[in-house]
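[recover] target loaded
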């Protein structure tokens, strides 16, 4: 263990990320061999997008028809929205329909329409990929928009509850620093 740690510490700033990516790709290859269903990754992603959207529509209709109480609709819709959030993250990292911008944009529209109080996914793609380059630094817009670095208080609570308030409170300082 000691020799391995010292080898990792001796890596240059370029070698470290390359080694990490090599192991990630190795792990991905192993998973894809073990679970053949992963060859249908695009279809799985589209099913999650459409299924979540239809699930939210169905639960809203079920509530309107009086079939389910409000709390069931809220909880189930939150679960469907969480699936869409994870799908958006995977789309940002180009895990579905790589090279097919039209289908990716269609899926982004689904995500945004059913999570309308969030930053649009095309902008989020930009700030999330930047986040991976400058994580934790002043230029890490994504972290700042989720209130990291804000002092505790009512403004931070409002910004955590509503992404638009995060833009209102954090936007001017982010623009100044950018």
């Amino acid at each position: 263990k000691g020799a391995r740690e010292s080898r990792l510490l001796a890596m240059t700033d370029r070698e470290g990320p390359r080694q990490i990516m090599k192991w990630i790709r190795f792990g991905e290859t192993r998973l894809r061999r073990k679970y053949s269903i992963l060859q249908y990754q695009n279809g799985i992603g589209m099913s999650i997008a459409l299924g979540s959207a239809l699930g939210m529509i169905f639960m809203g209709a079920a509530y309107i028809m009086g079939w389910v109480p409000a709390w069931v609709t809220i909880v189930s819709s939150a679960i469907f929205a969480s699936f869409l959030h994870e799908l958006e993250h995977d789309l940002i990292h180009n895990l579905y329909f790589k090279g097919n911008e039209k289908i990716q944009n269609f899926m982004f529209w689904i995500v945004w329409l059913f999570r309308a109080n969030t930053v649009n996914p095309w902008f989020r793609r930009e700030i999330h990929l930047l986040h991976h380059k400058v994580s934790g630094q002043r230029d890490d817009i994504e972290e700042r928009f989720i209130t990291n670095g804000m002092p505790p208080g009512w403004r931070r609570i409002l910004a955590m509850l509503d992404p638009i308030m995060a833009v209102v409170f954090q936007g001017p300082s982010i623009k100044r620093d950018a």
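[recover] notes: The chain has a mean pLDDT of 89.
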